[in-house]
Amino acid sequence: MRCSEEIEKKILLKRKLTEFSFDNMVKHFRSLIFDFPDKRTGSNTRYAIEDAALGAFSVFFTQSPSFLAFQDAMQKAKGESNAQSLFGMQKIPSDNHIRNLLDVVHPSYVFPMFSNIFNGLNASGHLNVFRSFNGNLLCAFDGTQYFSSKTIHCKNCSKKEHKNGTTTYFHTVVTPVIVAPGNNKVIPLQPEFITPQDGHKKQDCENAAAKRWIRQYAPMYKELGITALGDDLYCKQPLCVLMLEEGLDFILVCKPDSHKILYEWLEEFEAMQAMQTVTEKRWTGKTHEIDTYRFLNQLPLRDGDDALEVNWCELITTSPDGKILYKNAFATNFKISKNNVKEIVRDGRTRWKVENENTLKTKGYHLEHNYGHGKKHLSYLLLTLNLLAFLFHTVLEIMDDKYKLIRDNLPTRQTFFDDIRALTRYSYFDSWDAMLTFMIHGLELDVPDTS
Ligand SMILES: [Zn+2]
Question: How far, in Å, from the CA of 104 to the mean position of ligand 1?
């Protein structure tokens, strides 16, 4: 690294993420790119890889697969482009360039962005609204398959061999996110990829990936008080024991089929009428629904003398004519009482929000659209940059008054990104702030005072 670059890096790193403007976050991201490996040698390699990383990120951030093509056309026609003014790119890289340069970059180079932003949000008090039962933050774990193909594959693909001799290649990732009941914002943390592990014959699985994540990151986050949320797949003794050892609380879906012993005990207690119950009538605005909470503490999670004791609760919601509208049960390490059962169930259910609203699954982030799959890390890195773009969007919704105002005044998230796509295609803005101000004027809103 050249001396001037070293100084520039120090300046960038000194700029701690306490101010969450778009520009500041992009600069922080650039400081991480300094350390990206570059397989080429010679001058200007640093800028090339920086442009490649910022270029891929810009496509996810703007939700526009054609962003770079449009900016390239603008650069040629006007001598300036939004790729340069908004994202600080020196040159607009081709898709081929991006693919080739980024394939060697392991996604862990980007991971510090997630903890830096999280820590900054915490330091500035913005995580307080996410606090839930016991004052904890809820961290929902969920596995997402984000790629599947019968032909395209890389060395990190998981694979399933079919009886007819064909193979399906796929990629799955565990994406832990901070969620809160009644809050539509989701803060993604570092992802953990499900991938063939060195020295392991068995295929990797979601459960093992969650364990790796917990071992690596629980020490970083546990001081804040974390409740892990997960589906029935996570409600297994080794994972629960690990969570407790690593200082995490948990509220996990606990189904009868996979917890036979626990449910046998429940039946016995039920027969003895030892089950505790809380019933509540709830007005939905149209009709009265009845929530019946049942709970019991200290039940064995599995068979055997060493079985972990967990506390169990259930919610059944019925309509006035007795029809079951909702039924789910959870195991937790929190001691359940009549006073807290409602909150514990509410927290456990918050995970569904992630499954239903998971932006990566439902909102059409354009993964791999431009760049293909790569041979080494490309697929991982693009997923990570995509998550990072999602994180930027969440942070801007929390911190950027102008962004918030525009989002609140446009009917959908899709409208917002359609507008960004069109605006950045046809007009040049010398800064992010200038673009938002232009939109606010166009919507005939008052520009918030951000001084
Ligand atoms: Zn692959």
Answer: 13
The residue ranges of every structural domain in the chain are 3-111+370-442, 136-357
**Model-wide pTM > 0.85:** yes
Higher-confidence position of 54 and 367 = 54
Backbone angles phi, psi at 225, to 5 degrees: 80, 100
C-beta neighbour count of 278 within 10 angstroms:
17
Distance from the CA of 155 to the center of ligand 1, in angstroms? 6
pLDDT band at residue 1 using 50, 70 and 90 as cut-offs: very low
Separation between Cα atoms, residue 201 and residue 199, nearest integer Å: 7
Distance 372 CA to ligand 1 centre (A): 10
- Distance of CA 371 from the midpoint of ligand 1 (Å): 13
Tell whether the model's pLDDT for residue 362 goes beyond 60: no
Q: What is the dotted CATH code of the domain comprising 136-357?
A: 3.90.350.10
Dist. CA 160 → ligand 1 center (Å): 13
Distance 194 CA to ligand 1 centre (A): 11
Q: Do residues 413 and 390 make contact, with C-beta atoms less than 8 angstroms apart?
A: no
For residue 99, give the H/E element and its range: helix 95-102
Quote the distance between the C-alpha of residue 429 and its chain's center. Answer: 30
Mapped onto helix, strand or coil, the DSSP state of residue 109 is: helix
